[in-house]
Amino acid sequence: MNQRIIRFTLMITLYSALTFYIGWNGWVWLHSAFGLQDKWIYGFIVGLISFSYLIGYFLKKIAIFKIVGAYWFGFLQYAVLFLPLANLVGLILIFFNFPSLAVVNWIGSIVFSAFLIVFIYGSYNAYSPIVRKFSISIPNQASNLSNLKIAMASDMHFGRLSGLEHARRLVHEVNSLNPDIILLPGDIIDDDPEPFIQKKMGDVLKLLSAPLGVYGVLGNHEYYGGGIPRFLQEMEQIGITILLDEVITIADSFYLAGRKDKTDRNRKSISDLLSDIPNTLPILMMDHQPSDLIQAEKNQVDLLLSGHTHRGQLAPNHLITRRMFEVDWGYLKKNQLHTIVSSGFGFWGPPLRIGSRSEIIQIDVSFMESK
């Protein structure tokens, strides 16, 4: 317990120091350029904003704190990238006898403009989804099908910021593809199902339509919210089948397997999940996190669909996800296994995407006889 307290105290101290550094930079520019005087009110506002997400965790009914906190995380990331560089350039210019007041004003204005571009461009990428298309061939006969069109969307994170309008975008874009089946591999909601239910977002998602049905699996955020039973009940009411370490047969033509998220320590291994099915039909699998590609390949999975990574969501975070996963976005083929990982339709935290884009995946599958 003492170690946990020490770690928490250290984390809060470091975070507070970082917040002070960001706030100090803002104060220097605002005071110099606009004559801002009351540093105590300014400091209080910066402190409130920087801890808004934590406050929102305890005051869940006051949504504004979580919304402000989400935007703050996006600001925080780019402040860490922009401000040290701005300070360095400022010091160099002052060293070479440029007027300090002019340096502060100009560099502050440039940094402010950079933040403005990030927020405008990032918001556009987050709320303007595109459709990415893949065509694959599976060398196994699906009894009653020669082709299959899949619409896939992951990581919607429906809740406060990925809200009702974004849900309507999903339904419109997915239904316009006229898919045979719709697959949602995890993080359908953002932690707590309460905002999803309050906004009656289920009334929108139940309009998703495909002849072979709509299926999903749990992501890590469904676990974080602690409301899985209520979430499952809501999904059942709107006609979305959530597969919990289950394998079902679709149209007597292929198997669809859905894994619980890696967060669940009691989830089945892929070999246990597939042990009772005969290897006579193609196997399609949803697994929220793309972490078990080798096991999927060894167990003759033909198509593995995942999300989770967001492709880092905010560049240069994609350099981290690229190191964490064999494929963190896009397509990879390993022998018979086709793997497709989506950057997601929604977002976590700030409704911003830099270096990634909200997306829906269309997969055109052709089935063939084995040679």
Which helices and strands appear, and what pairs or packs with what?
Layout: H1 2-34, H2 39-50, H3 52-58, H4 63-95, H5 100-127, E1 130-138, E2 147-152, H6 164-176, E3 181-185, H7 193-198, H8 202-205, E4 214-217, H9 220-224, H10 228-237, E5 241-242, E6 246-250, E7 254-258, H11 270-274, E8 283-286, H12 293-298, E9 303-306, H13 318-324, E10 330-334, E11 337-341, E12 359-367
Parallel strand pairs: 1-12, 2-3, 3-4, 4-5, 7-8, 8-9, 9-11
Antiparallel strand pairs: 2-12, 6-7, 10-11
Helix pairs in contact: 1-2, 1-4, 1-5, 3-4, 4-5
What does this structure look like?
Helix 1 (2-34) packs across helix 5 (100-127), helix 3 (52-58) runs antiparallel to helix 4 and helix 4 packs antiparallel against helix 5 (100-127). The chain has helices at 2-34, 39-50, 52-58, 63-95, 100-127, 164-176, 193-198, 202-205, 220-224, 228-237, 270-274, 293-298, 318-324; strands at 130-138, 147-152, 181-185, 214-217, 241-242, 246-250, 254-258, 283-286, 303-306, 330-334, 337-341, 359-367. The longest helix has 33 residues, at 2-34. Strands 1-12-2-3-4-5 form a six-stranded mixed β-sheet. A six-stranded mixed β-sheet has the order 6-7-8-9-11-10. By secondary structure, it is α/β, with parallel strands linked by helices. The mean pLDDT is 94. It has 13 helices and twelve strands.
